[in-house]
From TrEMBL:
Metalloprotease TldD/E N-terminal domain span: 41-105
Keyword Cell cycle: no
Gene name, Swiss-Prot/TrEMBL: pmbA
NCBIfam families referenced in this protein's UniProt entry, alphabetically: PRK11040.1 (NF008268)
Source organism (scientific name): Novilysobacter luteus
GO MF annotation terms: metallopeptidase activity
Annotated family: Belongs to the peptidase U62 family.
Name of the protein described by the UniProt record: Metalloprotease PmbA
Origin organism lineage: Bacteria, Pseudomonadati, Pseudomonadota, Gammaproteobacteria, Lysobacterales
Length: 456
């Protein structure tokens, strides 16, 4: 079964040949599963390569080059499921992996929801989304880039006497998913990053902040000098923080933290939470959860999108669709298993969502601040104080106090609290200042009123 090129072959130069080999291997594993008596089977094969370097205070801390691969086999005997995986491509190891998956399936309980997604839902229009942009960066080049980034930040202000370091990462991934419906899907993607974290001040007055850039193509990364300077500006701006009196205020979540509010929604409307009835949004399709103007759309086919795909993790064809329209929740986020448990159909979200876009109804951050007038701008969230069963929300926060639409001073050591259902209803604006570093694309989000626990 071992048709994969040896690990010493150039990873980027022969990516198509490697995908071909993974596809051939997947078919042989499916044939072995059928021969063992499985009614249905699916195989996921992947190969990854990466380079990561870290520097701190002008010195190299780590250089890591990685090459990984994985083969996962899942078989179904009626409603009984078994899975096994390996990274060993020897013939005997692959055969043992199939045998182990079959043995597990024969000992599991029957589950009527188990099985492949329906054959009629398999993707047929398979395409690429300009997501393959290998970066021929050597370790020495990556080190120089990280050092330049950190130095640019440290040179920005004499109060930046310490650093948490700078890093450069580059990764490439090849994957094939195949199942016994005859579906074979191939994907290849790259992702590159550059980041820096700096420490301003001394002793008990120290403040830390940073910045990073991430893209599928290295030519879309911000420059090392820009990343270092932004990290420096953010760290210095947090010096001499104060608290604010406990009370209820408007809270503006900056774009990089605003997407966490969308993340809580995704968790609450995902199939696993719903069929377990462990969500505050059970039976919420068709309900107005947000203001009338609010909308979230899923766009799987964006060129160079972080989560662009023709098919989900089960081979189901993806499609453009609305998650929220007119403030109303349009659907859940389902794979085939959770859909069956709920008596519904998969939404092609096995493995997660594909490129969410939150519609803006306001201008950039400055315009949002001007519109808020007085309140709290949150730029960092701490802790995990979110109860997805009740929707109760309580998290540590840091940011800036706003008066007359302008930042007045840094704020730290406070807690913001509310209930997600009420917070969603209280959203007053979404900015156009979209943070492009995620598959959840949103600008700043203004919640009209939240409890802020500070002094007193």
């Amino acid at each position: 079964m071992n048709d994969i090129a040896p690990a010493t072959a150039p990873f980027h130069a022969d990516s198509e040949a490697r995908l071909d080999a993974l596809a051939v291997l997947s078919q042989r594993l499916l044939e072995a599963a059928r021969a063992a008596g499985a009614d249905q089977a699916e195989v996921s094969c992947s190969e990854d390569a990466g380079l990561n370097v870290n520097v701190r205070m002008g010195e190299v801390e780590t250089v890591e080059s990685t090459r990984d691969r994985g083969i996962a086999v899942t078989v179904y005997f009626g409603g009984r499921k078994g899975s096994a995986s390996t990274a060993d491509l020897r013939e005997e190891s692959l055969a043992a992996t199939v045998d182990q998956a079959c043995a597990i399936a024969r000992h599991t309980e029957h589950d009527p929801a188990a099985g492949l997604a329906d054959a009629g839902l398999m993707a047929t229009d398979l395409r690429e989304f300009d997501s393959w942009h290998p970066w021929a960066v050597e370790a020495d080049q990556a080190i120089d880039l990280a050092l330049a980034c950190e130095q640019a930040g440290r040179d920005f202000d004499p109060r930046l006497e310490n650093s948490d370091g700078a890093s450069v990462g580059s990764g490439s991934s090849l994957s094939v998913y195949a199942n016994s419906h005859g579906f074979v899907g191939r994907e290849r993607s790259t992702q590159h990053s550059l980041g820096c974290a700096l420490i301003a001040g001394r002793g008990a007055d120290m403040q830390r902040d940073g910045w990073y850039t991430i893209a599928l193509s290295a030519d879309e990364l911000e420059s090392a000098a820009t990343v270092g300077r932004k990290a420096a500006e953010r760290a210095v701006s947090r010096l001499s923080p104060r608290q604010v009196p406990t009370g209820e205020y408007p809270v503006l979540f900056s774009a990089e933290v605003a997407r966490s509010l969308i993340g809580h929604l995704l968790g609450a409307v995902s199939g696993g939470a719903l069929y377990r009835r462990a969500s505050f949004l059970v039976d919420s399709v068709g309900q107005a959860l947000f203001p009338e103007w609010f909308a979230i759309d899923e766009r799987p086919f964006l060129p160079r999108g972080f989560r662009s795909a023709s098919f989900d993790a089960e081979g189901v064809a993806t499609r453009d669709s609305s998650l929220v329209a007119g403030g109303v929740l349009q659907r859940y986020i389902l794979g085939s298993y959770s859909a069956r448990r709920l008596g519904l159909q998969t939404t092609a979200n096995a493995g997660g969502v594909h490129n969410l876009q939150v519609a803006a109804n306001a201008g950039d951050l400055d315009a949002m601040l001007a519109g808020m007038g007085r309140g709290l701008l949150v730029t960092e969230l701490m802790g995990q104080g979110v109860n997805t069963i009740t929707g109760d929300y309580s998290r540590g926060a840091a940011g800036f106090w706003i008066e007359d639409g302008k930042p007045q001073y840094a704020v730290d050591g406070i807690t913001i609290a509310g209930n997600l259902r009420a917070m969603y209803q209280a959203i007053e604006a979404v900015g156009s200042d979209v943070d492009p570093r995620s598959h959840v694309r949103t600008g700043s989000i203004l919640v009209g009123r939240m409890t802020v626990a500070g002094e007193g």
